[in-house]
Amino acid sequence: MADIDLSSVGKTFAGTPALQDITTRFEDGEFIALLGPSGCGKTTLLRILAGFELPTRGQIRIGGRDMANADTGVMMPPEERNIGFVFQSYALWPHMSVRRNVSYPLEIRRFSKADIATQTDAALAATGLGDYADRMPSDLSGGQRQRVALARCLVSDPCAVLLDEPLANLDVALRASMQGVFADFHKRTGATMVYVTHDQAEAMAMADRIAVMDQGRIQQFDTPQTLYERPKNRFVAEFVGRGAVVPVHGVARRGEELRAQILGTEVAVQTDPEKSRVSHVCLRPENLSIAETGNLRAKVARVTYLGGKYLLETVSECGTRLLAETRAKFDVGAQLGLTITTPWAFSED
Amino acid sequence: MGVSMQMGGSRSEGRLLSAILIVAICLTMAPVLRLFVEGVTDQGAPSLSLMGDVLSKPSTMSALKHSLITAGLGTVLSLVLGAAFAFLVALTDLRAKAALVFCLMIPMMIPPQITALSWTQIMGPSSVLLKTLGIAPPLGAPQPLYSAEGIIVLLGIQHMSIIFLTLRAGLRSIPQEVVEAARVSGAKGLRTWWQVVMPLTLPSLAAGTAITFVTALGNFGIPAMLGIPAGYVTLPTLVYQKLAGMGTTVLAEVSVLAMLIGAVAVIGILLQRFFQSRQKLHLVGATSRPLAIPLGAARLPVELLLWAVVLVILVLPMSGLLATSLVPAYGVALGLDTVTFTAWYEVLFRQPSTSRAFVNSFSLAVGASLVLMVVCLPLAWLMERHKTRLSRLFDSLLDLPYALPGVVLSIAMILLLIKLPFTEATLYGTIWIIFLAYLARFFAVMFRPVQASLKQLDPAMNEAAQSVGASLFRRLRDVILPLSAPAAAAGAILVFLTAFNELTVSALLWSSGTETLGVVIFNLDDSGETAMASALAMTIVLVVMALMAVIQLLSRRFPKGVVPWQT
Asked: How many CB atoms lie within 10 A of CB A187?
């Protein structure tokens, strides 16, 4: 069991808060992504989980065991946590061969020679590195190095695997194939995985749940679908997916339906039934359809071809930038009519 | 606890750091502290009166002035020579760079007193070489090197390799793109050098200058051999003369003078630190390929000029030394009828002290390299990870035993070890006192390269090992040691080569049976056996050169960075 419990974890570096009051729980076997812009504290959180940093406040439990507790001063060193860590720089030991890099965790655990050999071979085979076992890390390509790092982390059967932007140094094609490797790895081992990234497509593609972080706090922690369709605040709405956030002027409830004044038109909106008030809506391209009869007039400012469809950046009469998608090509400067269909509304202070 | 809280590292690291730090402080700082105590106490009670007396003496002030003049101008000369060589070797397409670098390293590896000995033998009226060539000044003419200028020139030559090495290391870390970008923008040759390369190398140039100044300030061999005959006294030779005079307060006086040297040295070290901390700012980009700006038609003349300089600073004095060792008596001209190997035979095979000294020096040098490697490697790594106040203080002071003149350090060792605390035993007169003095003196020589290499080590290397469960000991053994081994080997080679022919520390600490090679040469020269002294000095130079050559030849089999003069 490797569920991870954090309660009011905080970290300050030289007086500057990097993490504030993080209380959350990662379930056993979940694939979690920590997503956020650089400097949001996601890597700090990961390093605290690994034990490379000590939290200034709060406590961390992994699999029911106390890992760090700022109040009692309990601190389990990283080497005793049985956690796997995959570094952005891969951190392969340059003086050891691929095989030795992978077998090293087993040597530490004093496995017998035969066990080390079989388990190392299995890990190398699982990551498709069988032919490279006797090479040195410097002779490998970026993708191969990352697979060695993964094999090294997989071989010792850790209770949780932490990954720090492991694909940041790879090219686009390799990223896609490595995402598959990580997903397979997660399916096969069932290990709890915490994956730090600033790339939302990566997080969306792999994670069961995504914690969107900003300014040292978790802004929203939900499934990729919920994050996209039902953002809790302006930051999440703008950071995840394409879209524009526009203010709401006046809300009226008509039976089951909630109608809001947006950009001078009245449209039906969806919102969290538990929230009593809304202040903004998130207009995704899906919420905007182009129609001559559309009562929202806008001018095309930029056209980007996305392959099979176009992304139109339009400016409405009141100066708001809106994003729409279309199969037909429009020219810059063309006048359009837009219709808004049931956007997601939320309350922003 | 406070230590591990900061970094989140394991607590065992904090404990190990404290343990090794205490050992290192005892090794390096204890003698310096003991000397300091001697200077500020009078018969057991704290007193500053003696300090005031010594500092206000005109002889102290004139020695300080002489020290600053010779060390300062000597550094300027080193700077000009070393920088010229470094820029040309690192930036241009000169041929035979490896051979040039090898030859430039030799002056640093030859003990200063041998340098001085060899130069006096080619310059003076009784110069065997000049006599043989028939251009010796008339007898009775003064030896031109017995002067401030002589000291400055020899200090400049002796230490130019320090500037050369630091500057070349700095130049190598300049990304090639930076220079290429300047050339693409239209900057030509000298303009690129002046406007792009120079500003980027200023920090390492300044750092090298500071180290050179400190080393020149503590140099004893050159001002002793050249200054004492001319009555030109510097601080290290003043210390030596005071000791020779002996008196009731001599040790206290000497320690005040030592503190004065130490104070000037610390200012130099602090300056170096300041410049090195500024160096971190730039230097991003690939540095894979070395620069090779074509010199064009100027290449051959430049090469000839550089080799001519090498001839003057290396081959000439060595041939003087060789000539002196081959004549039956000092002052006789060398000719086919006078050449004899008597001195070589006598000193190498007849004198029992020579073989003893070889064994002593060799064991001391090997022992010091090994012990320092074992202490410095974990210490440098732990100090890099846990920056406590004590470790930072130690970091800023650990160059002191190296910067202080050897004579001063040996007095400190005597004070400290003549009577071991809580016992009646003494280490004075045993080889152990020399050994401990070497550990203190060469600590910085070992520590600094290891520290520099560990600063560049990706912290993830260690964290990766931590995350797979490796204990502190395993991490040190399996990850940190192999990754910093090249730097440790480079440090060990430097320690060995400098300790092997060291004189100034052992000069006061030896006794019958514990002579070192440096002591034997000094004693031979002192008792008028210049030919034998030259023969032994020549042997040592040849042994050092042979060792360097072996290391150079094996360099391809070593990992990158093992050979200190190739970093």
From this structure: 9
Chain A residues near residue B1 by CB distance under 8 angstroms? 73
What DSSP letter does each residue of A213-263 carry, written as one string?
Answer: EETTEEEEEE-HHHHHHS-SSHHHHHHSSS-EEEE---EEEETTEEEEEET
pLDDT at B7: 44
For residue A106, the chain B residue with the least C-alpha distance is B468
C-alpha distance from B394 to closest chain A C-alpha (Å): 23
Backbone angles phi, psi at B89, to 5 degrees: -70, -40
Instruction: Write down which residue in A235, A269, A303 finishes a domain.
Output: A235
Structural domain boundaries, residue A124: 4-235
Q: Do B467 and A84 touch (CB under 8 A)?
A: yes
* Residues B226, B216 share a domain: yes
Residues B368 and B477 in one domain: yes
A74 touches B at CB < 8 Å: no
**What pLDDT, in 10s, does the model give residues A123-181?**
898 888 889 999 988 888 888 898 899 899 888 888 899 999 988 878 888 888 888 88
Residues B52-78: what's their mean pLDDT?
Answer: 90
Q: Determine contact: A83 vs chain B, CB below 8 A.
A: yes
Smallest Cα distance from B432 to chain A, Å: 37
**Chain A: residue whose CA lies nearest to B5:** A54
Using a pLDDT cut of 70, give the percent of chain B over it.
90
Using the beta-carbon criterion (under 8 Å), do A108 and B10 form an inter-chain contact?
no
Closest Cα of chain A to B463: distance in Å?
7
As for how many domains chain A has, the answer is 2
Per-residue confidence (pLDDT) for residue A90, from 0 to 100: 85
Which among A48, A73, A79 has CB closest to B469? A79
Answer yes or no: pTM beyond 0.90. no
ipTM greater than 0.90, yes or no? no
Same domain for A281 and A206: no
pLDDT at A207: 93
E strand residue ranges, B330-389: none
Between helix B481-500 and helix B431-455 the angle, nearest 10°, is 140
Range of the domain at B184: 59-283+301-340
- CB B261 within 8 Å of CB B280: no
| Mean of pLDDT over chain B | 81
User: In sequence order, what are the residues at sequence separation of 6 or more whose Cβ sits closer than 8 angstroms to the Cβ of residue A348?
Assistant: A233, A234, A245, A279, A280
Same domain, A287 and A304: yes
Counting one residue from A and one from B, how many pairs have CB atoms under 8 Å apart? 85
Task: Report the SS3 class of residue B11.
Answer: helix
Q: Residue B522: which CATH number?
A: 1.10.3720.10
Res B128: pLDDT: 67
pLDDT at B1: 34
The model's pLDDT over A214-226, given as tens digits with 9 standing for 90+, comes to: 999 999 999 999 9
